[in-house]
Design goal:
- It is a single chain.
- The chain has six helices and no strands.
- It has 231 residues and is mainly α.
- The longest helix has 35 residues.
- The protein is elongated.
């Protein structure tokens, strides 16, 4: 028979996964809105933000209640601490999606312009990081989280390339400066989403291995033969 503590931990885990789904959906919709200049998707992202904010408060309240009433230790304590930090990062992922949507709403007001930046490719890479970070949490596997840390280099390089190409475009075609600036900000928002995915991966490693890799993000994680059961 499962104890009340086990049931609460499972409920907390499920709440965080639903939160992750909302944040992932928000980024996906915002990037589709950019690609298709779709105002309706922008509004969906803005409406979704309130759901994410409510979910963040509920998860924090539940986590703090478990800490106060159950006084967990060892891996269970690390799990709850990781949940609260991942919860915060997911809320900020939602904020970045809102920023992208608002930028797209401005872009839609301007004439369309051909810009030398591949936002869809960057969005695909960032989306993969968020999904893999959440998978590492679901499966409780540090090696999956480690892969997310290694992917951050790719997105950083895309952001740097976007900056160079868009600045060059602005110099060559001043009439599309505003569109290029908006695209540059979208690229920066996506890079920040990747940073939050990296934070989530670091928190999973902390939970699973008890290792703090925040300032050694690209160090190889030493795998242990025993992984905590996420269920």
């Amino acid at each position: 028979m499962r104890t009340r503590f086990q049931q609460e931990m499972e409920e907390l885990r499920e709440k965080l996964l639903r939160m992750g789904g909302l944040a992932e959906l928000a980024v996906d919709r915002a990037c589709q809105a950019y690609s298709e200049r779709d105002l309706s998707r922008c509004h969906l992202v803005l409406e979704n933000e309130s759901l994410i904010n409510v979910a963040e408060r509920e998860i924090d309240e539940m986590a703090f209640d478990i800490l106060a009433t159950q006084q967990p230790a060892a891996v269970d304590l690390r799990f709850i601490l990781a949940v609260t930090k991942i919860n915060s990062d997911l809320e900020r992922v939602g904020d970045q999606a809102v920023n992208i949507a608002e930028r797209v709403m401005d872009l839609i007001e301007l004439p369309a312009a051909e810009l030398p930046v591949d936002i869809p490719r960057m969005a695909t890479a960032v989306g993969a990081m968020v999904r893999r970070a959440l998978e590492s949490f679901v499966e409780g596997k540090a090696e999956l989280a480690q892969a997310v840390l290694e992917m951050d280099h790719v997105v950083d390089r895309m952001r740097d390339e976007a900056f160079i190409m868009l600045v060059r475009k602005m110099n060559e075609s001043p009439q599309v400066t505003q569109q290029a600036l908006d695209a540059l900000l979208v690229a920066r928002n996506l890079e920040r989403v990747a940073d939050h995915a990296t934070n989530i991966a670091e928190d999973v490693i902390f939970w699973v291995l008890g290792a703090d890799v925040r300032h050694h993000a690209h160090a190889t994680v030493v795998q242990t033969p025993t992984q905590p059961d996420p269920h």
